[in-house]
Design a protein that fits this description.
Elements: E1 4-7, H1 13-24, E2 28-33, H2 37-50, E3 53-58, H3 64-78, E4 83-86, H4 102-127, E5 136-141, H5 145-148, H6 155-175, E6 180-187, H7 194-197, H8 203-206, H9 219-230, E7 241-244
Parallel strand pairs: 1-2, 1-4, 2-3, 4-5, 5-6, 6-7
The structure holds NADP nicotinamide-adenine-dinucleotide phosphate.
The site of NADP nicotinamide-adenine-dinucleotide phosphate has 33 residues, from helix 1, strand 2, helix 4 and helix 7.
Amino acid sequence: MSRNILITGASRGIGRAVAIQCGKRCWSVGVNYAGNEKAAAETVAAVTAAGGKAIAIKGDVANESDVLAMFDATQDAFGPINGVVNNAGIVAPGLKLAEMSALRLQRMFAVNVTGAYLVAREAARRMGTDRGGKGGSLVNLSSAAARLGSPGEYVDYAGSKGAIDTMTIGLSKELAPVGIRVNAIRPGLIDTEIHASGGAPDRAFRLAVNVPLARPGTADEVANAILFLLSDESSYITGALLDVSGGR
Ligand code: NAP
């Protein structure tokens, strides 16, 4: 069955890998990005080359009007949305909590928590059968950090992802009666540019010694799990927190 999917933060990393895999299934994709227009255009070209359709939509998930606009643009281009990947997320340079500024904490929670909640709210409004939608699948990007806590570097980020786990559990029950399945993926150390944005480009490889599978994961390995949760192959799964972390 063809799908119309909105992916937040799809210009790079895990979001881009999901977009391309959607393209391989001939699905249509709203490719949201924050500011990297060139990367977003490359994702759109890759989705199209794979056999799907895509549009790039600039917008900050922490901004409510941007979130509404990204849903509207995807719907206007392709029709009703039946899958949302709540993927946009940020880290900041590794610090102990005692060293973190209020500004850093505000931005971390604005993007990773408020942004993810706004996207989930809009998914509920657009896909819920109680509001004229046809149901669908919402996949939230949490992190193994939610259970590891990330001491000494990212306790702010880890807490923001704990909120995603809790939201997934509650929302899966709230939205089951209106035809929306809600699940979360908890990636471990995945080889993307997020580590460089936190000032440690080699982090995934450096810490891989602690991973039972002894290597970082790839964005495609995370995307495989997300596509499973988007598709009907997971039709009886909701409220799941799926670790894609090499056993870590
Ligand atoms: P990434 O490579 O840093 O890519 C981040 C993406 O999010 C980019 O497309 C970026 O757009 C977009 N973005 C950033 N801030 C945004 C905002 N405010 N509004 C809209 N889009 C925004 O990240 P990633 O590694 O693929 O991570 C994706 C998700 O997986 C995140 O939620 C992350 O926390 C989670 N995760 C990642 C790992 C890992 O090891 N990589 C592990 C656990 C969980 P631009 O290109 O325009 O900047």
